[in-house]
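Private note to self, pasted from the team thread so I don't lose it. Backbone tokens:
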């Protein structure tokens, strides 16, 4: 037996691994701290912040949760419009408002005003123009200091003749103004650590003498900032809940607090009556080692990100700073001689876990006793923290769980038989094994690294095996799709056809990918699959177009394998998961495992870091990156504050003659965008601004499109709009009149509800449908779109596909009609293709075998559609370009994998 050597401890252990775990958990040695702040802090403590300490026993007369009048309310509450859904809220952790001392308030008590600042106070800026300029140069344009100085010099020179005063003298003055912003400010700190264990008597490895710096921000203060944001006040869940559809009582899941884990944690926490009435705040962590440059020296960074489970998914998808960078972890580097030694590996693992434990240690008191924080609605609430999911790829999961690489981090399946059923890992089971077995048996029989203890061991209610969550990008998109299936296709083709023929087939697959028609936000592949370095965005973009590219070259089982993976990837990202969705997910998983057997039988088997790095001078870039991130936070916080006070309404520019329609000033960019506006399920379409050099009359447009009968089509459209067409006989009544003058534009902006994609806080998203004879000074581009033809039918049964030949508007009888000249497509069959799961369409023709052309009102457009040719076994010409795609083939798949909204729309058809 081995005794614990710590004074006052009388525990004995059977082996060294048990002693190691005990020491790390009950007698931890934290690294020494050396605080260093790269940006001078000017923030004053806001009202109430001094009361964020752990609450003492006895919260006052109103502290008894039994006095909470909300407890008398029924657990079930209807949510949303009508009575379609209801929620059961947790009965104990109720998020009840209190005062700054933690005393509960009576129901309906008003919140204190968030600020006493006046609506014309732009501090620390002198005016709106000064703030807008700083935000534009630093956030939007990301202009270098040298270029800012050049611009300001030119601007200031132009003011000399008029005696005007410059907004900023130079970049330094602008940076100083940004840095003095009291909002959005959590200072960066640093602690240093080094190896303190035994050293060899000679040839001491360099890593044993090195000092490692870890930069971090207080997670508690970061969370305080997040909870206090007024723009989050309507997008925060204060209580765990379970949500159901009223008609069927079937459950659904949308946001983190609707899950079973949050409810069970609340059950555990509320065993202590002192926590009743509090708000449970789950801490969500994620990290990913990042390479920002291949060409310059030290270029690896290890960022740690934090979010909280109370923020709804729509906030994170709106990119509203719902995920915050809180640390840069140290990355010990070593030469090959020492990098593979057990001592270095053990130190590297322990450094990782010790760093996480230290960074998160200021949350520890608030995990067992409530602390008081102010929320964005103005109310104070008692808060209880808890460690929640840690999102990581497999390599980091192994590190986090202290598991041998190749083993499952979630269950005890042997590494040679991962498909077999096995018990789940747990903290209690692992601790029992470590006390019982030596290090070798732990490693060989259970895949456990017994001399390293997970950082979670010192935190209450934290089981690392339960908290580890998969990283969709790295494990499914880059891992399963790119690193496995795409590689397996190449191996399969070589195994079946030999290298020479396989390479010819792969070249044709690449040409198919190259030939895909453009679509807003879709990455182009000028060389097919060949990248020097694959990024996550490369993999996500390739997923959208890969399935039709391999069809005809591989067996149907492989096509269905890819389809199953793609459908799984899109299903798990839906904004709402229902019980029916879970059944569908299980079905596609089973389908994937069934069809992937063909590979066995054949014998084959980041913004907060990279963007700031690019803005540094590469000389000791980490300090510059910290300052850049802090300034971005300050500018974002200022914009939120000014917006909340109504100070950013209108364009704010005196003597401005611009009258651009909202959202249309970016119509020349090939990107879509999240839009913060009221939620509307119906799509809204708006024509872009009038560009030069387009047809200005119906006659000119007819000539441009080579449609001589366009005036007749226009007259028929106008009759339909006037509800006169159906009443017309062969002798048509007097035709409605319209002038020959028209306004032709190159694009239309479509605003629609797409909460599963990157969207505004209300789930709204804007995309652009193009129709122009030269896109970005290059080839022509005529996009396709969905048209509403029967609103009473679901999905594709109530939609048709058109290709937009021109957008234009005209006036008839004092009314303006925004329209589109379109070519119609016909659906092939009454259900999607069995193998790919995608609908097939082909260009429509009249009885005279002429293309079916029509004019439609833009209000009938739903959104853009993306079509991919049905290649079959037809080889693709090397000369085929993306803009030829829609003119060169006779049948097309409607690409339901182009984004999550399209997937949901087209999956609702069957």
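Design output:
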């Amino acid at each position: 037996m081995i005794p614990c050597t710590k004074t006052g401890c009388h525990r004995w252990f059977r082996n060294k691994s048990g002693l190691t775990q005990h020491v790390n958990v009950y007698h931890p040695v934290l690294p020494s701290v050396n605080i260093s702040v790269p940006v001078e802090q000017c923030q004053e403590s806001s009202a109430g912040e001094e009361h964020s300490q752990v609450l003492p026993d006895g919260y006052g007369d109103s502290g008894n949760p039994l006095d909470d009048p909300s407890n008398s309310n029924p657990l079930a509450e209807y949510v949303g419009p009508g009575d379609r859904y209801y929620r059961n809220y947790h009965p104990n952790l109720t998020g009840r408002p209190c005062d700054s001392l933690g005393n509960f308030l009576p129901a309906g008590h008003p919140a204190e005003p968030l600020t006493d600042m006046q609506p014309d106070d732009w501090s620390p800026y002198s005016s709106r123009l000064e703030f807008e300029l700083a935000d534009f140069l630093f956030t939007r344009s990301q202009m270098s200091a040298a270029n800012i100085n050049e611009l300001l010099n030119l601007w200031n020179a132009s003011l000399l003749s008029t005696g005007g005063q410059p907004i900023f003298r130079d970049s330094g003055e602008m940076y100083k103004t940004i840095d003095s912003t009291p909002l959005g400010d959590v200072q960066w700190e640093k602690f240093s650590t080094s190896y303190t264990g035994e050293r060899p008597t000679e040839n001491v490895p360099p890593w044993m003498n090195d000092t490692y710096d870890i930069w971090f921000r207080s997670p508690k203060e970061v969370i305080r900032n997040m909870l206090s944001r007024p723009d989050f006040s309507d997008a925060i869940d204060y209580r765990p809940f379970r949500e159901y559809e009223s008609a069927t009582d079937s459950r659904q899941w949308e946001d983190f607090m609707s899950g079973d884990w949050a409810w069970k944690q609340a059950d555990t926490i509320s065993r202590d009556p002192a926590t009743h009435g509090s708000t449970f705040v789950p801490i969500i962590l994620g990290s990913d080692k990042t390479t920002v440059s291949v060409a310059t020296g030290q270029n690896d960074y290890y960022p740690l990100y934090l979010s909280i489970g109370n923020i709804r998914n729509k906030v994170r998808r709106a990119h509203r700073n719902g995920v915050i960078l809180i640390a840069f972890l140290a990355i010990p580097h070593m030469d090959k001689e020492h990098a593979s030694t057990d001592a270095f590996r053990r130190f590297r693992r322990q450094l990782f876990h010790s760093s996480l434990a230290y960074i998160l240690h200021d949350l520890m008191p608030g995990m067992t006793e409530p602390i008081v924080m102010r929320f964005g609605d103005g109310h104070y609430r008692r808060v209880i923290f808890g460690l929640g999911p840690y999102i990581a790829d497999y390599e980091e999961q192994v590190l986090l769980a202290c598991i041998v690489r190749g083993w499952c981090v979630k269950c005890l399946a042997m590494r040679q038989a991962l498909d077999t059923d096995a018990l789940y890992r747990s903290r209690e089971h692992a601790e029992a094994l470590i006390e019982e077995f030596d290090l070798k048996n732990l490693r060989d029989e259970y895949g456990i690294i017994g001399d390293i203890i997970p950082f979670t061991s010192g935190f209450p209610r934290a089981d690392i095996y339960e908290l580890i969550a998969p990283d969709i990008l790295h494990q499914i998109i880059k891992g399963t799709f790119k690193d496995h299936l795409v590689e397996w296709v190449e191996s399969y083709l070589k195994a079946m056809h030999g290298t020479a023929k396989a390479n010819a087939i792969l070249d044709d697959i690449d040409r198919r990918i190259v030939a895909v028609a453009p679509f807003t936000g879709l990455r182009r592949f000028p060389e097919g699959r060949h990248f020097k370095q694959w990024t996550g965005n490369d993999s996500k973009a390739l997923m959208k177009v890969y399935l039709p590219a391999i069809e005809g070259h591989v067996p149907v089982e492989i096509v269905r394998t890819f389809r199953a993976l793609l459908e799984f990837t899109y299903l798990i990202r839906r904004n709402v998961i229902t019980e029916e969705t879970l059944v569908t997910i299980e079905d596609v998983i089973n389908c994937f495992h069934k069809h992937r057997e063909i590979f066995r039988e054949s014998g084959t088997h980041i913004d907060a870091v990279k963007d700031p790095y690019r803005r540094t001078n590469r000389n000791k870039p980490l300090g510059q990156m910290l300052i850049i991130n802090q300034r971005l936070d300050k500018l974002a916080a200022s914009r939120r504050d000014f917006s909340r006070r109504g100070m950013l309404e209108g364009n704010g520019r005196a003597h401005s003659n611009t009258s651009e329609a909202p959202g249309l000033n970016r119509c020349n960019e090939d990107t879509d965008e999240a839009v913060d506006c009221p939620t509307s399920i119906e799509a809204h379409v708006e024509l872009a601004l009038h560009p030069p050099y387009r047809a200005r009359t119906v006659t000119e447009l007819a000539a441009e499109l080579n449609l001589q009968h366009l005036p007749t089509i226009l007259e028929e459209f106008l009759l339909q709009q006037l509800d006169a067409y159906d009443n017309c006989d062969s002798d048509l009544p007097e035709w409605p009149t319209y002038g020959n003058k028209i306004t032709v534009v190159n694009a239309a902006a479509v605003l629609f509800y797409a909460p599963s994609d990157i969207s505004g806080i209300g789930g709204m998203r804007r995309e652009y449908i193009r129709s122009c004879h030269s896109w970005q000074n290059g080839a022509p581009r005529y996009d396709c779109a969905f048209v509403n033809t029967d609103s009473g039918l679901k999905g594709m049964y109530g939609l048709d596909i058109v290709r937009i030949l021109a957008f234009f508007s005209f006036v008839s009888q004092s009314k303006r009609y925004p329209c589109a000249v379109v070519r119609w497509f016909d659906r092939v069959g009454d259900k999607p293709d069995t193998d790919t799961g995608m609908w097939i369409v082909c260009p429509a023709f009249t009885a005279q075998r002429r293309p079916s052309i029509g004019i439609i009102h833009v209000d009938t457009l739903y959104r853009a559609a993306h079509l991919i040719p049905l290649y079959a076994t037809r080889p693709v010409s090397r000369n085929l370009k993306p803009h030829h795609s829609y003119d060169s083939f006779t049948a097309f798949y409607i690409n339901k994998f182009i984004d999550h909204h399209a997937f949901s729309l087209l999956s609702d058809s069957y």
